[in-house]
Amino acid sequence: MADQPQSKSNGQNEIVQPLLTDLYQITMAYAYWKSKKTDDYAVFDLFFRKNPFSGEFTVFAGLEECLKLIQKFRFSDSDIAYLRQILPSTIENEFYEYLKTLTTDNIKFYAVKEGTVVFPKIPLIRVEGQLVVAQLLETTLLNLVNYASLMTTNAARYRLAAGHLKLYEFGLRRAQGPDGGLSASRYSYIGGFDGTSNVLAGKLFNIPVKGTHAHAYITSFNSIDELQLITLRNNNMGSEENFVRPVLKWREKLISMFGVILSEVNDGELAAFISFAIAFPDGFMALVDTYDVKRSGLINFCAVALGLHDFGYKAIGIRLDSGDLAYLSNVARDYFEKISNEYAVPYFSRLVIMASNDINEETILSLNDQDHKIDSFGIGTHLVTCQKQPALGCVYKMVELNGEPRIKLSQDVGKVTIPGRKDVFRLYGTTHSLIDLLQKADESPPIAGQKTLCRHPFQESTRAYVIPTRVEQLLNLYWQDGQICNRLPTLEETKTHVENSLKLIRPDIKRSLNPTPYKVAVSDNLYYFLHKLWLDNAPIGELS
Ligand SMILES: Nc1ncnc2c1ncn2[C@@H]1O[C@H](COP(=O)(O)OP(=O)(O)OP(=O)(O)O)[C@@H](O)[C@H]1O
Ligand SMILES: O=P(O)(O)OC[C@H]1O[C@H](OP(=O)(O)OP(=O)(O)O)[C@H](O)[C@@H]1O
Ligand SMILES: O=C(O)c1cccnc1
Ligand SMILES: [Mg+2]
Fold it and tell me: Which GO molecular function terms does the record list (predicted)?
């Protein structure tokens, strides 16, 4: 059979299936079954308590993968056979028969649109319906949302730091395994990167793929004599001509401009550049730091780029992978400008300068203060491993059962769950969003132009009236009656949504240093409901 084109994004998550969970979900399922609670009507909220990276915002991602899980959720015969092996022999046979019949047909799944900026405490996902299934989804949903949202947020922060400069994800070699690598490419693209070096991610998700070459390519040549192919088609003449000669001529001409002596310029490096230019005359990008950027890499690059110019091609630029990136980018830009003027090659002053090597958000912010001339960054380790904070702490908590609210108490006020089936509204001012408001689902929604009381969930005296210019309901129904019931956006649409969603958040909330917290409030009704339930459930101690 001929090679079938794969659908764009179904390759990654074959491993996402009901057994990709914690054992305790299965043992609870059995105990629910024994206690005849499986069909109770449960409501679970998925939310986080603290924004990552010392920031004050998070970008929600992973929704499409959650819906794929819900769509495919079925225990297979081999799953059941495995569970029979590992669970105690006391487990009744009928339970396994029951597990086989489970589907997500009796589940409703609400979520915030993928790519929306979100904040602590608001439900990003609300799962309701058959208790046993809603419970069984916990770990897998958390797994699908936590890294995706963390990665998207990380990428969005790099994008905010880098402004309009190009950003490429180069992290596959450092990622947390193959799935971590693919997810990093996908979610960094959604979060604001322009492309990835990861070829499989390009194929699966239709993300632009980009790349230069490694030091190994440069060090694989020792001298010009090693070049097997020395000719290139001259675009101006239409004939194949010796390409090495004009390049060597150019290098001699440039010697005085660069203030170097010929013997210190590396010939192996020049040979590598020439051969790469012959292979990719329209896409010549050179890694210039293998030996010495100032005394070898730049002059060799410029000689080859000018040779290409003579032959009717335009070089793309250079990559700097060590040293002081700001300083070296200025040195490179100065030479490019000088050559542009001296030899009347206007595009030379605009050649791309890419920087890589252990770059993180702080490096970019620091470079912003240094008057650098970098056009694009290649970023790996810090981006894909989210080195600054390696996990987002989303949790999945039961908030209602059979119409009765449930609360999880904690000594730490911030960890007390907000009970009941809730809706979330984002209230907008004229330019930015003002506050997110949680309400009981049976309350009528806030109305634009009308005064709405917003209360801090735990501090009684902290309240404010808000007159929103616009009200957005954040939770949308995505799954009911066994099918997806809302349109899923493309990756490009989600990427654009991240950008637009971030624009509606005030700059002081997004800044890197000491950002202002965004306000998340509860309605008056929910405030009293929460605090009554808290009092009802908190034991009164006795001092002795
Ligand atoms: N102008 C700059 N401002 C702030 N940070 C920079 C600047 N230039 C480079 N950096 C960062 O400083 C670090 C330099 O790291 P390191 O000393 O390991 O590299 P190097 O010595 O340049 O490279 P190598 O050891 O590969 O030759 C990198 O994380 C890099 O991103
Ligand atoms: O630094 P990162 O943000 O992870 O970006 C990717 C790095 O990966 C490549 O080389 P590698 O680090 O494998 O080797 P090198 O540093 O010795 O060039 C590339 O040259 C970058 O330096
Ligand atoms: O294409 C590149 O330059 C690249 C790709 C991966 C890692 N480092 C660099
Ligand atoms: Mg490195």
Answer: metal ion binding; nicotinate phosphoribosyltransferase activity; transferase activity
